[in-house]
Amino acid sequence: MPTQIERLVVLMMENRSFDHMLGFMKRDNPAINGLNGDEWNYPASELPNNVIVSQDAGDVEDLNPDPNHEFAHVTWQISSTGDPVGNPDMKGFVRDYYSDCKDAAHAAGIMKCFTPETLPVLSTLAKQYAVCDRWFASVPGSTIPNRLFVHGASSAGSLTQDVLAAPFALHTIFESFDATTPYDYAIYTSGSSILLANHYLIQHQDKFRDYANFEFDAINGDLPAYTFIEPRYDDGDGLFANSQHPDFPVDRGESLIRNIYNVLVKSRDWKSTLFLILYDEHGGIFDHVPPPVLTRKPAYLHLPDVQHSDPPDVFDFTRLGIRVPAVFISPCIPPGTVINDQDYEHASVVATVRKLFCPGSQPLNWREAQAPTFDDVLTLTGNAIRTDVVNLPDAFASAGVDTSASATVPVPRGPTDLSVLMAGAMQFSLVQRGLQPPGDYTTLTNSAQVTAFLQKAQQISKTATGAQ
Amino acid sequence: MMPPPRSQILFCLFAASALLGVSNLSRAQTYHDCKSLTENLHDAIDCGEGLFSETPLHLTSSSMPPGNGFAIGVVVEQDNHFVSPFALPSKTAIAPGKPAPRLPDFSTNGIPSLGSVWSADGRLAAVFSTNGSWLTYGALTVMPKGYISSHRTDHNDIQVSCNRLGPLCTEKVFGLNFGAAYRSLQTISFYGIGPSSPAVKYVFRQNETFGSFRAALPLVDWLSIEAGFEYRQASLPVTTASNSVSANFNNSSAPGLTSQPGFAHPYLAFRSDPLFYLSPKSDDRDLNHTGPLMKPYLVFTLSNSVEYHWFAAQGTSVSSFQQAVVDSDENIQIGSVVRRYVQVAETKVGVSKLWYSILAHACGDTGIDWSKTQDYVLKVRQLCHFGDVDLRSHIVASRSRADSQVPFYLEPTIGGSDIDSRPSLRAYPDYRFRAPDSLFVQTDYSVPIYDPVGLLLFYDAGTVGSTFSNLSFNQLRQDAGLGVTLSLQGHVAAQGYLAWGAGHGPTLAYNITKFF
Fold first, then answer.
1. Which residues from B are below 8 Å from A258, CB to CB?
2. A231-244 tens-digit pLDDT
3. Is there a contact between B307 and B325 (Cβ–Cβ < 8 Å)?
4. Potential cystine with A400: which of A251, A370, B31, B276 (Cβ 3.0-4.6 Å)?
5. So what's the ipTM on this one?
């Protein structure tokens, strides 16, 4: 019987595919479904030769402009013929990126991958604990739908970033942490989270904690049963984005991962803690494994369906997105573990959290009910539980192939689309509740303004909640 | 022009607070709210706040020294850089639901730069008051781009981003600040000099011109060194009113009354604002149903400075003096962590139920169904917040040669609010006690009751003296009181209060924070 997970800490990073980050780990561990080095994609039309994966992914600049990863583009990435079910050849990434950047040579950069040497922190953890090479994004689409799935096994019908109503409307696993269960949860943010706009969480703002307090809380044994960590999505306040969203430096995210690990190993709850590192979606970057098609099992026909998306891209959410990195870290996991027994996806987090901390409550929909859980990954028990602590390398010194982007004091910059959309979703949510938003999100022109907007909106919500 | 009676201003302040307090709608802080100004009262309030906080252009009532009526003005400001050493100190909040006080965001798209060397923040302001007083202010902060982005590692092997300059690795960077101001003040109160001066109020007018240059270098995140040079020229126009200082005092009872030299004023300061947490380690389980209910969770932000000032009078030596200033503001956010769960069945009725209701509210949960006996009122590891305690002190010690005296208009004051709008002995009138040396300590407890309105409880004590050794506990004045605070974007912008201790019943007064 595996060790019971008493603390689950989930960190969800941004927009990187499995092969891009961990594919070349196959060199050291053939059990991993990674890269041989000869995987290829069709070239942009001006160039004659196919593009082969390479081991020279850089910290920054390979992926500027941001590769497409909306539903229609992901379809072409999965299938060079536009048939993701019948012909998922995974050979359309370069051509799709070329359609955006219009630079044939630069488009080939979508095939660049990291190696364990250039991505030392994540690779070391994957090697020393467990890597799952069959974890797929829940939606073959962009960030927000996938981030909604990790909380609600649904995107509330959203297939794109722009459905501002979806974050508000979504029913999440957090609603199951109600007054009937003794367990609690917390969401650590650096100011931004799509969850801030949710109809339920907007009235439970106390569950959002400042990431600046995470180190202190963890070491003092103050983390609740379920902790979800949001990375910093934008530069600002003298601090750097660490979400690893292209084209923010990857080494910042490596540092975040390293820090969370180093904190958790000092936590008093470490022996019963599972730290799970996920990426929300592939970000338009190459991966060689076709995503699975889902068939609703008869046993779950009685459960609610997930809300389908509206035209023009009507979708019933029966295909998963492209594979993303998933690393399981716990002293109850032996080194070198590879998890590939089932096709995990973001709804697996919802299902596992429910099984661990909200037993007896009903799944939100068939996607949750059908998602495999990972509550049994802590296979070491009793005296076999590890007491070692992995000495992680310094992310800053080793990961950055190109460190020039980090060589200046951060200055205000344009906000990422994601941040602005979070602000838009927050504005929508306030209006739905009859509250006056702190302005018009469409007028926000830099990341600092977005941060301030979200802070004000959160304060408005907090004030209103306190009054009700 | 006579200023409006204080009671009138207070009424307006409290009325605004009360309206915000009873509002079920919350406030916002942009001009956007003014589009629906006429729809209802709440929008009007939101619009009002937006007018006083939106950037880069907004109204202000700040920075007019007390006693000069109700001021209104315009500020144009642009803070492009979040690493300015001159920014107001920020602190980490216990929970993001209670955002950390911080400078309002004045960012815009552009980064004004002088070549490739500097990045700049700027502010221009003009404020006019009902009694004819006015001030103008301008400042420019420039910061070099020569810092290199780097990191350092803390005691838990946690990497923290910082900006590196040689051996220094800090969040904020070196900055230079250039400023200029002119203010014309129609009414400053004067009660004589010393701790026992009679409670007879005289007034004087004061015009002042300032030009300043400051440089600040963060040595570590919690400690910086600052040096600066200021030139200031004051003039005290003679008035013939029966209660004027010029009609009732002379140069020996009010040094500096007959002539006001220009002052060259260099200074050196060390400023520290470390932040740390306090909470015992514990390994309580989620299903823990016995033992202590709570453990403390305290966040300390300790802002302290030690300053040396030299005021060199130009053209005469009789007014030169030196001054040491020790200033502190120790803020403690009082929080706790729940260590065992509590179910509705345990809360019983009456006082017990009220107590748990208060706790549950402080710990974030609202809407508990008290009829369901097995439901959880408190869960293990919930974070709770019970308000802030501020312990402040301000000590000024002046020294001059035997043939020199500190001009009375440059002496520190305690009572009400001083010329920098700093509250001290709140039961006493503004500028009530004045002398070359002063000391005051105060304790504030504030808790948000309905943001932006908070409840304030306070205690003040202070005295003044002709020399530091004359600061006697025998002359110590004390008061205490309660009031409300009004915040704008996380900063207390104003407070209205009732204070007792001056020996004549309660004092009703207000203070508007000086932001520039």
1. 159
2. 998 876 667 789 99
3. yes
4. A251
5. 0.88
